[in-house]
Amino acid sequence: MSKKIREYIAxxxxxxxxxxxxxxxxESGQIIPYLFSEISELEELDTGxxxxxxxxxxxxxxxxxxxxxYPDKTFGVFVRGCxxxxxxxxxxxxxxxxxxxxxxxxxCSEELAKACECKKPYPDQCIDGEKVSGISNKxxxxxxxxxxxxxxxxxxxxxxxxxxxxxxxxxxxxxxxxECSLEKIDLIETGKIPPESPIFHLTRxxxxxxxxxxxxxxxxxxxxxxxxxxxxxxxxxxxxxHFSYRPGYDEGKSPLNILGARPDEG
Amino acid sequence: MNFKNVPxxxxxxxxxxxxxxxxxDGEIINIVPSKSSPVNEGKLCIKGWNAHQFVYSPKRVTKxxxxxxxxxxxxxxxxxLDFAVSELSRIKDQYGPDSIAVITSAKCTxxxxxxxxxxxxxxxxxxxxxxxxxx
Lengths: 266, 135
What we know:
The complex is a heterodimer. By secondary structure, chain A is α/β, with parallel strands linked by helices. Helices cover about 35% and strands about 15% of the residues of chain A. Chain A is built from ten helices and eight strands. Chain B is of the alpha+beta class. Helix content of chain B is about 30%, strand content about 25%. Chain B contains three helices and seven strands, in the order βββαββαβαβ. Chain B has helices spanning about 45-50, 75-95, 110-125; strands spanning about 5-10, 20-25, 25-35, 65-70, 70-75, 100-105, 130. In chain B, β1 (about 5-10) and β2 form a beta hairpin. The mean pLDDT of chain B is about 95. The chains are: A alpha/beta, B alpha+beta. The interface between A and B is medium-sized, with 34 and 25 residues.
């Protein structure tokens, strides 16, 4: 945790450019999300590095709730490359107003970039951290190289581990719908574990198309260790291949985004 | 504008998963699993993800209920406790202490569970103690 980022946020708070900064802090040995509103609190600011792991929370999802309640307040928010992609998409989906958000970016370490197989492990504007280059999707290639019946067996086996906790949806910063197809009784039968396979997981995968920004929080929170990130990486590749649109990277809007006006039309 | 994240422990089973309550202006709006809890390492089951929902449920029991004429009727603590004491005493005197069993809960604290087993053994005089944590 460098001084640079603290000073940058302190300046934003001091000049009243933001009303609060949504980041992470250490509290009783844990790392938790925190809304900083005083400069003196910034001593406790944390980037989430703990015991060789990087702790991340869906801060953008919290930002959606904060900005809905306080639409005229401006919030600073801690972003990594994936979070910044998320913000860009949430602006396009009219979930957050870009005029009221100040992202404060940090580049990810090479180690984290590799673990994530992240194409762009840094935000456009980095306040801190060394930018490292992107990594290609080896995990998708590995599965694509499987013979098709083996691939089907692989996925059905993975889906059969699901305990239907809805954690993948709950933690997803891009899941903002008021109504969720995964709770529609006509589509997904209730009272059964694992949930109907593969409809449950494929429904979610289809909804991630043109929306997933590859943060990997879903896979991290899955108690059954289903490789959800690989599934959504593949879905993202398919959209890119057919519509030349990669969420969080490309200008314009996802072909599947039919919400509201275009961002440039307000 | 008051947004707090309160680290605590899931009140459901005995695992003790770390959860973080997200409190906006005094109202719990969401739960996230604690990523730094060594117990659940950022994972939760469906009950943990929804552990805050009972807080504002209108179905919560807020007063003691007593079965009167086959219906649960709201009553005072005094009446409920008096009735429990007199019936437990009557059953113990008539059939002996082992005719009574005590069921504790993973939702209670360690201290509460200690008290319940102490009550069973010292006050009633039975080892019939069990718990609901057979999830």
